[in-house]
Fold this sequence. Notes:
Chain A is an alpha/beta fold. Chain A has 3 domains: 3-96, Translation factors (Elongation Factor Tu (Ef-tu), domain 3); 102-214, 3-Layer(aba) Sandwich (Rossmann fold), CATH 3.40.50; 217-251, Dihydroorotate dehydrogenase B (pyrk subunit), domain 3. Helix content of chain A is 16%, strand content 34%. Chain A contains 5 helices and 16 strands. Chain A has helices at 76-81, 121-132, 152-156, 176-182, 196-205; strands at 3-16, 19-25, 38-42, 53-56, 59-61, 66-72, 89-96, 110-116, 136-143, 161-165, 172-173, 189-193, 211-214, 230-232, 240-242, 249-251. A 7-stranded antiparallel beta sheet of chain A has the order 4-3-7-1-2-6-5. Chain A has a 7-stranded mixed beta sheet with strand order 11-10-9-8-12-13-16, with helices on both faces. In chain A, strands 14-15 form a two-stranded antiparallel sheet. By secondary structure, chain C is an alpha/beta fold. Chain C has one domain (6-306): Aldolase class I (TIM Barrel, Alpha-Beta Barrel), CATH 3.20.20.70. Chain C contains 10 helices and 14 strands. Chain C has helices spanning 78-89, 105-115, 137-142, 144-157, 173-182, 221-234, 248-257, 267-270, 274-289, 300-303, and strands at 6-8, 11-13, 17-19, 42-47, 60-63, 66-69, 96-100, 121-127, 162-165, 187-190, 194-197, 212-216, 239-241, 261-264. In chain C, helix 7 (248-257) links the parallel strand 13 (239-241) and strand 14 (261-264). In chain C, helix 4 runs parallel beside helix 5 and helix 5 (173-182) packs across helix 6. Chains C and D meet through strand 11, helix 6 and helix 7 of C and strand 11, helix 6 and helix 7 of D. The complex binds flavin-adenine dinucleotide (FAD) (2 copies), flavin mononucleotide (FMN) (2 copies) and FE2/S2 (inorganic) cluster (2 copies). Residues 38, 51, 53-56, 69-72, 74-78, 118, 121, 216-219, 248 of chain A line the site of one flavin-adenine dinucleotide. Chains C, D: It is an enzyme of class 1 (oxidoreductase). Chains C, D: Keywords: Cytoplasm, Flavoprotein, FMN, NAD, Oxidoreductase, Pyrimidine biosynthesis. Chains C, D: Heterotetramer of 2 PyrK and 2 PyrD type B subunits. Chains C, D: Residues 4-286 form the Dihydroorotate dehydrogenase catalytic domain.
Amino acid sequence: MIGREQMTVASQRLIAERTYExxxxxxxxxxMKQPGQFVxxxxxxxxxxxxxxxxxxxxxxHEQGQCTIIYRQEGKGTALLAQKQPGDTVDVLGPLGHGFxxxxxxxxxxxxxxxxxxxxxxxxxxxxxLANRGVNxxxxxxxxxxxxxxxxxxxxxxxxxxxxxxxxxHGAAGRVTDVIEARALEFDVLYAxxxxxxxxxxxxxxxxxxxxxSLEERMGCGVGACFACVCHVPGSxxxxxxxxxxxxxxxxxxxxx
Amino acid sequence: MIGREQMTVASQRLIAERTYExxxxxxxxxxMKQPGQFVxxxxxxxxxxxxxxxxxxxxxxHEQGQCTIIYRQEGKGTALLAQKQPGDTVDVLGPLGHGFxxxxxxxxxxxxxxxxxxxxxxxxxxxxxLANRGVNxxxxxxxxxxxxxxxxxxxxxxxxxxxxxxxxxHGAAGRVTDVIEARALEFDVLYAxxxxxxxxxxxxxxxxxxxxxSLEERMGCGVGACFACVCHVPGSxxxxxxxxxxxxxxxxxxxxx
Amino acid sequence: xNRLAVELPGLSLKNPIMPxxxxxxxxxxxxxxxxxxxxxxxxIKATTKEPRFGNPTPRVAETPGGMLNAIGLQNPGxxxxxxEELPWLEQFDVPxxxxxxxxxxEEYVEVAAAISKAPNVHALELNISCPNVKKGGITFGxxxxxxxxxxxxVKEVSAVxxxxxxxxxxxxxxxMAKAIEQAGADGLTMINTLVGMRIDVxxxxxxxxxxxxxxxxxxxxxxxxxxxxxxxxxxxxxxIGMGGVQTAExxxxxxxxxxxxxxxxxxxxxxxxxxxxxxxxxxxxxxxLGIDQISECTGRSWKIxxxxxxxxx
Amino acid sequence: xNRLAVELPGLSLKNPIMPxxxxxxxxxxxxxxxxxxxxxxxxIKATTKEPRFGNPTPRVAETPGGMLNAIGLQNPGxxxxxxEELPWLEQFDVPxxxxxxxxxxEEYVEVAAAISKAPNVHALELNISCPNVKKGGITFGxxxxxxxxxxxxVKEVSAVxxxxxxxxxxxxxxxMAKAIEQAGADGLTMINTLVGMRIDVxxxxxxxxxxxxxxxxxxxxxxxxxxxxxxxxxxxxxxIGMGGVQTAExxxxxxxxxxxxxxxxxxxxxxxxxxxxxxxxxxxxxxxLGIDQISECTGRSWKIxxxxxxxxx
Lengths: 257, 257, 313, 313
Ligand SMILES: Cc1cc2nc3c(=O)[nH]c(=O)nc-3n(C[C@H](O)[C@H](O)[C@H](O)COP(=O)(O)OP(=O)(O)OC[C@H]3O[C@@H](n4cnc5c(N)ncnc54)[C@H](O)[C@@H]3O)c2cc1C
Ligand SMILES: Cc1cc2nc3c(=O)[nH]c(=O)nc-3n(C[C@H](O)[C@H](O)[C@H](O)COP(=O)(O)OP(=O)(O)OC[C@H]3O[C@@H](n4cnc5c(N)ncnc54)[C@H](O)[C@@H]3O)c2cc1C
Ligand SMILES: Cc1cc2nc3c(=O)[nH]c(=O)nc-3n(C[C@H](O)[C@H](O)[C@H](O)COP(=O)(O)O)c2cc1C
Ligand SMILES: Cc1cc2nc3c(=O)[nH]c(=O)nc-3n(C[C@H](O)[C@H](O)[C@H](O)COP(=O)(O)O)c2cc1C
Ligand code: FES
Ligand code: FES
């Protein structure tokens, strides 16, 4: 069930350049299940900023009743969010959307997780849940530069983890696709989240394979009502999918990137 | 000198129904001199609420580098202000305007301070400074009801203090003017701050006497530039005074109430 | 008696609160949050004859106190609305106001004739003012004669009362309203969005793929209030007000300005529960203000002025 | 070369930032905060022939992301402006743009002829669009022929270039701009305020004593950007843009839309230091965006589109 709750900030810390890890506590955590789902966050009660911000779930901890999100400070909304202190509340709507299909990865099989920049967070809960199901997880995480890297060891705890940076300041120099190629990484299923050019490159390279991509689009409602976040379906002029409610995760080929 | 500073909240507490006492620390305090001056407060950095809120200085403590304001939670801005915690900052512009003329009260003479509701705060610093100058202070403070009363003992420390409540739940039943009449209170100079009907009643009753009134008007700039807060000058169609920069304290008769 | 009840042409509303067109889809999404039967009415998303995909994305951009949208009238088309969306909505005890749009007068007329016969459609809302459809849209809404002609044609074929939705992007909103009233409209709804734009400083380009979009949300409320205040004094048909409504106080402000019911748009995105919350809060607010029936409030801001010396509106 | 410098008819500006008319008085108040010589120019408060008291109070009301004002052109009158305010301003190294208003064409012409001869007045700004003066004001600003006629008459007598300030309360801002350009205006300034209203829920009456007022501040920025974007593509005279500017980024957004300089109004009330702050922050922002001269930025949002396939404005 989607709910709305004033969740309580349990902790917040800077984990990389302009990148915050925010842990929230509340009953809503019990509704959060699927990695790749997101929450829609209102950072201040005032009319400025007005809209909610979509942020992916990075960790779901039902026992503690806590969830974690990781976000980069970009504009007005995330700047305000970064000011929250433990004990403050955050207005959360969620969990929203359809996440990564775990069942697409056979137990004992190999899942390749490919993340770019601030697309990395949802892959962490995915890695955890896949590993729990006995799937072999390989992660390839791309960042711009060393200072932006986060969660390297945390991913490594679930399997082989490769880092790529654009400027070569950490891990391999270049893009995630370069790493996949150089290492000749194989997979039964590929899950990815990151900037559109990265998703497009993966889509083209692995056309026909089981590839799941998490998309980003500017949102109004976040629940499927406003038609802000649509994308085309291949082969039709009028058919569409909504990123917020049909996605954000789609099987490659399901929608036009 | 008028300045702008992110002042730090030293303390904030509820002292009466919807009424808060907020103590702020900062260098700006050293610029604050005259009782009756006000500060113009921006309660949040966002565009909503957009404008600053005019709030009177209630206590100025140069040694501690702190000032106190007392305000009633009315709308959006004061509701946000009420959420501030010690250590938070508040964007303050001030001190603004011309306050109560202390020199109008002869040492050894008698000053009558008349306050109504949320007009009471600036009279406190006035009482303190007058008492320091050897003026005998008599205070008459009107409130709606007992739950709204604040600072009764604090005023009493500087001289005779009478409370009136509209519903008679505390002190005398009725208005401040009833108390002045009933007690036949005399004065060399009268200083007042409160709702316009109260100020009008005092103006009419004591026409020609040395009476100083602090006015309220909706403000834009607070510094004299926008012409939002003007009032007429008796006997002219076009002459005006600005409450923010010529006032907020005027001698009775100087402007049209 | 139900103090929130409001009677309008074609609409006996249990309360005056309804989601605004385009901000509530066809109700399915919000039905997961609450029982839609609590609503006074529902204004469904603009329906055109054929399905439309609408504009490329990004379609929304945030602005101080508001948002821009350029959805471009995406909708599943008349047939699907008639066969899937409206029948699904019949499970709720709530009248539907069908918002209709088109590129030509003929399209409006065709959609109006068909959709007005659906059992739960109690009124039509003519969207003559969508700023995001280049062909036609904007002209219908800004030229009084054209708007009047369209109103007349739709009235001829409609089986239910017709409300016309006014565009705020005009010099003289009163002239528009009067022309539409004279053409036989049963009511007005106002305001639609104001044409606005945002440019991304990093790219130098408009944020919306469409370039311009429609401004909505709290930022536009003072413009909506002013226009309703002016129009309600000039016409005798009722107005459903909208533009930035977020709270029960806002609803009262719209009534005082001259509205007889109120629609809530953008605020649904901020808080999916906003409509039932407002409906629940209204009785206490009426108590606080000493108001018996909400319907008494319509136009109070200008009605009291005739008697009050100090009022200079 | 000074990368913030901007050349406009009559105005060689060291930077493109100036306080907007009515939001800075005649400079005296803000001179207590900083040296006015840092400003690109100053647009002084509207001057009329005779002194005016203006409207009754309350004259301002806050709105979400904005404010309403109904000052009503209060000013000390032409004589005092000529003998007291302008001479006082001569101590600063800053060109003055004199905003003028009137109830009749003759009044505009008389004030324009006189004030344009003051030594530090480098340009006039015709306020044909003040929504708070009932007589004349609003009509001049909404009928293209009337605005053009007024422009022509003032141009005949003015000793300095004439900028005309456009009202956003019109259906077709481009038609207004073109008529005014053809009548000989040297530049445009836009936008003035949008007519709005707020009603106090407790009293049921408008908050402003005048009833309606002009909406300004961040809330109107998307409307200003859209109008400047449209007008700058249709005329060849320069535009001084305004409406909700608060930051250096906002200034760039106005340039990209099509402005050649930018005025800051309401933001002065929020932060009296806003103009010098923006001026100080602009160079770093230009660096970040790889811009050499700010004057290159004018109209970039639509100029780049001619070459870019993906742009659909
Ligand atoms: C499904 C989904 C999941 C996301 N998960 C994460 C995450 O886990 N961590 C993270 O750092 N970021 C994530 N993002 C991106 C994040 O939503 C934006 O960075 C954020 O909204 C920017 O808000 P702001 O206030 O900082 O910027 P502003 O520029 O002030 O935002 C203005 C408006 O634009 C929207 N916007 C701006 N950038 C984006 C964007 N990239 N995507 C969508 N809307 C945008 C905002 O939501 C807001 O409505 C996700 C986006 C989507 C769609
Ligand atoms: C010189 C001066 C000194 C004041 N000193 C005090 C004080 O010491 N303690 C105190 O509680 N109040 C004081 N007030 C009144 C105080 O400014 C308002 O109560 C406050 O601005 C309301 O803001 P809000 O956000 O709660 O209300 P909102 O309704 O959200 O305010 C909306 C707008 O209206 C203005 N406004 C609303 N009420 C008033 C009012 N009564 N006077 C002026 N502007 C108003 C606000 O400033 C704001 O711009 C003073 C007013 C003036 C002019
Ligand atoms: C995303 C979005 C889509 C809209 N779609 C429509 C529409 O299809 N038909 C219509 O008449 N109005 C449409 N509107 C306008 C709203 O119905 C409403 O008139 C406007 O948004 C002002 O109200 P608000 O400020 O409460 O949103 C849309 C508004 C938004 C924000
Ligand atoms: C209090 C106030 C007074 C104004 N007075 C004038 C005026 O005298 N002449 C004029 O042309 N514009 C006047 N304006 C309009 C501003 O110059 C400006 O066009 C408008 O406020 C939009 O800019 P902003 O959003 O930065 O304030 C006034 C605006 C305000 C807020
Ligand atoms: S954000 Fe509204 S439909 Fe997806
Ligand atoms: S508030 Fe601007 S002049 Fe007084």
